[in-house]
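dude i think i finally got it to work??
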Amino acid sequence: MSNPLIVFTYAPAGLGHIRVANALMSDVPAGLEYLIFAPSDKTTETTHRFTSLNVPARHVMEFFQQGAPRFYLQNSIPDTLRDTPEIWPNSL
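look at this
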């Protein structure tokens, strides 16, 4: 049986994607081959930059990525509960 080929793919639009891919690649076991596929796409990079800097655009992007139920549920939790999970048992 031949060794499998591991393919890492990511959009190099944000540094988070690159850091995660580098962390994964650094832990590939010795003897396994891997390939990196990171196409450069100006549309993806521009959209990522815009939604990273513009808060309303970020909310629109998250709405489409996560879906309406999760978006509304997540945004309906009071900040005090979200920021201080240690009070949850007393609140329930």
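DSSP finds six helices and two strands in the chain.
im so relieved honestly
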